[in-house]
Amino acid sequence: MAQDEQASLAAFLAAHPEVDSVEAFVFDVAGAAKGKWLARDKALGIDAKGLPIPLSVFAQDAWGCDVMEAGLAFGTGDPDGTGYPIPGRLARVPWLAGNVAQAFLTLRDPAGGPAQADPRGALEAIVARYAARGLTPVVAVELEFYLYRLADGVPVPPDGARAANWRRNDTLSTGALAAHQALIEAIMAAARAIGIPADGVISEAGPGQFELNILHRADALAMADDAMLMRRIVRGLAHQHGLGATFMAKPYGDASGSGMHIHASVNDAAGANVLADAATGAPSPTLFHAVAGLVAAMPDCMLAFAPNANSFRRFRPDAHAPVSAGWGHDDRSAAIRVIDGAKAGGGAKATRIEHRISGADANAYLALGAMLGAMLQGIEAGAMPPPPQDPRDPGAGERLPVEWGAAIDRFAASDRVAGIFGPRLRDIVVACKRQDRAAFMSHIDRFEYDTYLSLL
User: Fold this and answer.
1) Is residue 431 part of a domain?
2) 53: helix, strand or coil
3) What single DSSP character describes residue 417?
């Protein structure tokens, strides 16, 4: 698609006269798309005027219900923010019938700045703090998901096998990719159409599990957009191909969880990676300052990486989902993996930090914001991290709050989190997740009845 066709929504529509409606949306705290469908003629005006969207869309629980404690809907008049199309993210929506295009929006306040309640705006502000120091985060994401079919209302792998009986490991299986060739090709084409630099798909260990690799960008905000938009693409196109797709952290109790691994380095104004020694390419003191910030903030920030009830099913010893706040040199059992570009053969540009905690269900703006914000706190403090963990004892660091209620409480009380996101957004996230948790605590499932009803 020509660059000038992406300069504005009006230019895109002029280049695509077949489009007769536009789906305009933002992503809420839970990661759901919220917005409006507009007739073509009405959509032409939103480049200049924007689109009014209630700020209360950022204070809804997992079921789309307003969260009173967030203070955005009730007693406020439910005011609007104004959404403007993000250039480069305009495309046809291939999984919708008819001629529908999408307009992904950024929500602004009356002064033109990021809306205070918007997780995307919070990440934008964090990136601006790097820019004020002459620094630019460079970020890449690996995003895992499952394809499934429904049987009696529960997911099963695409071939119909029950996950509980699954014993074969399909990691890097080319056969598993070939079985879904048409869907994978459609996903990659849709990603290219909205500027996502996805460079490949691999088969993962779980039944029907895959991983999408999104190439590094010197634009952390765009990378978070990529991750959020990619989830939307995968789900929409899977449905079109007769399957479900889920980014749940743990859709099957006895199969691998789905993570979102985040790789980050930091460039200076000249484009040099400050996490690497200029002469050798090995990790620099700045990298270890960043690691110190990550380790210190990790327990407080857990809710940004594991936001849902299901998120915490991933965290088990020896399951590539860390349970303690530790780091290691090229150690995939650690929460923070330090990759030495000189040893890996990629030179200074390849020296980076891999953050291995987030589930695929995390809101990418909050997950990247928590990671990059903690790194910047460490860089500014100039602290050094504790010693690297022993791979034979990966649980030796500070225990992470791997229970939903504990993670919510830790996030709610944290000055570190307030320093990263601001106290207002911190409190909105907490209010939403407390309402989610209250609903789960009021629900009793069949397994609980089967266990206790006749026993007690």
Assistant:
1) no
2) strand
3) H
